[in-house]
Amino acid sequence: MIYPYHKRIPTKDYFDEVRMVTVPRFKESGISGNEWRTSVAIELMFKGHVIYRKIVGDMPTALLMVGNLFVCGMEPLSDEYLIVEEKKCDQPGCPEDASIRLKLKREVHEDGTPKPDRIVLMFRKFCSKHSIRGNGDIEDSDKNYEPSGDA
Q1: Residue (of 85, 67, 61) closest to 9 by Cα position
Q2: Which of 50, 60, 89, 111 has the highest local Cβ count within 10 Å?
Q3: How far apart are CA 54 and CA 41, in angstroms?
Q4: Phi, psi values for residue 115, rounded to 5°
């Protein structure tokens, strides 16, 4: 039996938006008094969904931590990420639900040479707007796909 495999687009980033938001909170303490304090929430987003969130003390700390959190947030990919990815268009930055599944006819290496044929069926999925792929890429082009049903 041939099992279909979802092949990601090579130029895809695992997060497509990073937010750093100041979050006010009111601290109540009988010892040192009551006062307003702030923290900063770092949110790593994918297709409009918060995938990873961390609270730190201030904006300079948040700025210094973003790169590390970006890398650590991908290892391993969270269940939330995989649930969102399963439903959404493969075009980087597109938040729409996928509506069509396209089967890859062949895979190619980064230098454009063909990869050996596999037993596994490879597919990508797109919304109606992004299902037209153009001809600027060898692997991700209209002539290298054939429709294989709804996403």
Answers
A1: 85
A2: 89
A3: 6
A4: -85, 155
